[in-house]
Amino acid sequence: xxxxxxxxxxxxxxxxxxxxxxxxxxxxxxxxxxxxxxxxxxxxxxxxxxxxxxxxxxxxxxxxxxxxxxxxxxxxxxxxxxxxxxxxxxxxxxxxxxxxxxxxxxxxxxxxxxxxxxxxxxxxxxxxxxxxxxxxxxxxxxxxxxxxxxxxxxxxxxxxxxxxxxxxxxxxxxxxxxxxxxxxxxxxxxxxxxxxxxxxxxxxxxxx
Length: 208
Description:
It contains 5 helices and 2 strands; from the N terminus they run βαααβαα. By secondary structure, the protein is mostly helical. The longest helix has 55 residues.
């Protein structure tokens, strides 16, 4: 299975719960302006590692990825064992007829097709969950900034990721202020009950 690397702003489906009041921040950055234009930026990497919603969802996606990988490994090992058994019988004249050999070969081919279909399905499910996170994170940040900017009155708030902004004075950095506000608004989804966990385990077994 492909190894997934979740992009910074592109990281079951937990959503952000927000109120409509502007939260009080722990830290207030100094007002910034350039030629009368008030601007600020947010460090995306810091947002991804310190925003509790992003951290929680990252754990969820990693768990889903690990479960899918383990399932595919088990199925792959079973297929390899079936192929090895078939080859051994061929080498040792273990089949009583050509029909018996053809039947087992056909079964192996079906097993291989099933594995390929399973891999495609699991990868699609993971991609779907990742897309849901992308949308939820984007909506969460945009909704927060609308409320946040009622008081701040910035003309522009930029996302700083990698080297897309080559240089910026730290006084324009509102990252920690935004993270503090997002975390105050974020209410994690309830943890799954014992019955939910059993249901998830049953589904996982059925997929195998």
